Amino acid sequence: MTPEQKREIEILIETPENQTSALLTLLSTWCAAEEDNETRNMISIALTIACQIKKSLEEVTEGK
Prior knowledge:
Layout: H1 3-33, H2 37-62
Helix pairs in contact: 1-2
């Protein structure tokens, strides 16, 4: 991949990366404040999926 192509990809995924980071922050805050165990477990699952999305976006940026 050329440096120009890599830069184009970085620009295209910048917004999804930022949105994923915001989602992780919101879910983490909610999970910490939630008292119901069942709801906390569901939030934890959503956090796991969001982390996987973030990792996938990072791998795209790295060219993997």
